[in-house]
Amino acid sequence: MAGFGDFVGKALQVGLDILTSTDDNDSGRRAPAGPPPPAPGGVRSVPSTERARQISYAPDLDGAADPGEIVWTWVPFEEDASQGKDRPVLVVARASEAGELLGLMLSSQGHRADDTNWLSIGSGPWDREGRDSYVRLDRVLEVPEHGIRREGAVMPQDRFDRVADELRSAYGWH
After folding, report:
1. With contact defined as beta carbons under 8 Å apart, do 98 and 67 qualify?
2. What is the pLDDT of residues 129-138, one digit of tens each?
3. DSSP 14-27
4. Using CB atoms within 10 A as the burial measure, which of 5, 15, 74, 96 is most buried?
């Protein structure tokens, strides 16, 4: 059984990998080479109340996305679902045994601080520039697990718990 030191070592390595890669988080940088983004419709955005379910913190840096981890995936724009970009997404639950994940979009745009649908989660290794990030609560993304580009980071449990508390109190999650 791996100890806490092994877990921290893996988390640090993931963070270092992020710092040495290029990505696309609101800044226009290019995403790392990898599989092409899913066809439009591969990632769906739905109101959080329509996908309310059990939420619990369970990160495990084993290559599979788990609740509490921030991963990168192609996310369609709300205005035009045929377009989108690679973004960090907080995994909050599994939608099905078939490997579909539920995630919340992250943004580092400061104007999100005044939006009631966004929650500040501070900075972390998912943003190599160390900017404060915000998570969108009112829309959940249904992401096929094969659409995940890479694991980005583990969100600290206290911050994940704040997100979970908001989903429970305002969106019917349990």
Report:
1. no
2. 999 999 999 9
3. HHHHHHTS---SSS
4. 74
Q: pTM above the 0.85 mark?
A: no
CA distances, 28 to each of 46, 69, 87, 108, 132 (Å): 26, 23, 11, 12, 17
Residue ranges, the chain, pLDDT below 50: 1, 4, 7-8, 16, 18-41
Tell me which DSSP letter residue 29 carries. Answer: P
Query: How is the chain split among helix, strand and coil, in percent rounded to 5?
Result: 25, 30, 45
Nearest to 74 by CA among 62, 59, 89: 89
- Which pLDDT value is given to residue 18? 47
Neighbour-count burial of 70, counting CB atoms closer than 10 A to its CB (0-12 exposed, 13-18 middle, 19+ buried): buried
CA 162, CA 168: separation in Å to the nearest integer?
10
Quickly count helices (H) and strands (E) in the chain.
2, 8
